# Entry
Amino acid sequence: MSKTKTICFTNNKGGSGKSTACANLAYELAQAGKKVLLIDGDMQLNLSLSFFDEEKVLDMAECEDNLYYAIRGKKDLKDYIVSTPYENLDLVPSSTLMSQIEYELFTMMQREYVLKKCLKGVYESEEYDYVLIDAPPTLGTWVINILCTADYVIVPVEASPWGLFGLANMFDFLTGMNEMTEAKIMGVLITKVDERKNYYKQTKEILGSYDNIHVFDSFIHVDSSIEWAQDASVPVAVYKKSTRSAKEFESLAKEVMEYGSR
# Structure
């Protein structure tokens, strides 16, 4: 098996569709026969809620078998993996205690590399083709941890008047991380597109003005099926395979797999 590829989903602005993109891309990669490990790095638990009902997610968040306790104790993440209901797709669940993770990391030596060390066993096992990490909408030490682990970064951006707000800061932050991480921006994914409005075209034009920033050909429309799928705690293709957004996430998965084969 080729080296496990680790992809971080990050945007310092909330509401970009980050968790939705991470969950549905993971499902489509798994459907394509790739073995995928998801890491829910956000205290909001949205990635975990994409695959399990609220009661199960809260149970995982309140016990000690979740990401917070693994990072706090510098434990091997292999011991914190749970199987999702879907073949080839596993998850390290999050906890609301992740709100305290910055404080926990502050007291640790080489604090920027704790997550990478916790994933060492996962990488050595060569069991997974992809590790996908959902980062919180911040630019703190925990996100630096995630970036120091990642090979690639996907930046979801909402096609709205405020969707690009703060994006220059995000790119500057990633550029400033060059000495600590080899993570490359795989691409910007435009989300929540409503073609009755002009925001998609404006967003694409502005993103095109950035040097060396790839924008995925695939983009994700506004689709009520996404919300219904979230309400049912399933990927959108499980909720309704024929829906437009399901096909768009399938297309995104093909782009990601092609990128990884370069």
